[in-house]
Write the structure tokens for this entry.
Amino acid sequence: MIIFKNSNDLYTYLARQKTAGFRTGFVPTMGALHAGHISLVEQCHQSNDLVICSIFINPTQFNNAVDLEKYPVTLEADIDKLEKAGCDLLFMPSRQEIYPEGFTFRQYPLGYLEQILEGKYRPGHFQGVCQVVHRLLDIVRPHQLILGEKDFQQCHVLKKLIEILEIPVDVVIHPTVREQDGLAMSSRNLRLNIDQRKTAPLLFNGLSKLAQVINGNNDSLVESSIRELNNLGFKVDYLVIADAETLLPPGNETARKVILAAAYLGEIRLIDNIVLN
Ligand code: AMP
């Protein structure tokens, strides 16, 4: 695995590889890698000749300073895992490399997508996500971008970004990888204490139970799920049933629904979702 810290070096290297006919796939991450990230890397291998992964904790997507300060960093272990997973190129830029002096932070017209759910509870978050992914895609220019379904709304936002900017890249969404007890893998899980770690899978458990009983009118079912989770020690930001294509409340046109939730355990914020078929 070759490690790049400089964006021009990576860009130049990749341009040569693409001219030589290599197909490239890209997995952007913030590090503290777990089996969820690694399964994205493995998926990337299946349809690309070169797998590129990035590790960059993007300050502009954190709307909470403590969350940024405490974001787990496990670089040596990350490099080891990526090497074992067969990652070809790792991009580990500095903040200065991604946002050099004079960098213009533009606003992306994401519309209602950044006002609902995560957007509502984390103002500015998706603008930050778009800034960094735009910058990374500009450097890497991959044929394929692999994203995790765990961040369901982020997938929608990034597809919208790609549409707005008319970037020629295929987006592949990879299913959520879970711990044996159902907890969606997340770098932030490292910050859960022993008691919180025991409680954490109950979020997915709650969503799974709701998924089994929803019917036409679900308001009271949703309300009682929220109440139950709050009683278990979560502080639920939102728990909704939405149209999986629009993330808006389901209507007659809805073909596929998704249950989306975000909840705090102490100061750790967990998100999860279940797509209903
Ligand atoms: P992050 O490092 O949290 O920014 O995540 C990097 C990428 O990994 C994103 O596309 C996430 O959606 C994806 N990801 C994170 N956790 C999981 C998981 N448990 N299963 C599948 N993909 C994940």
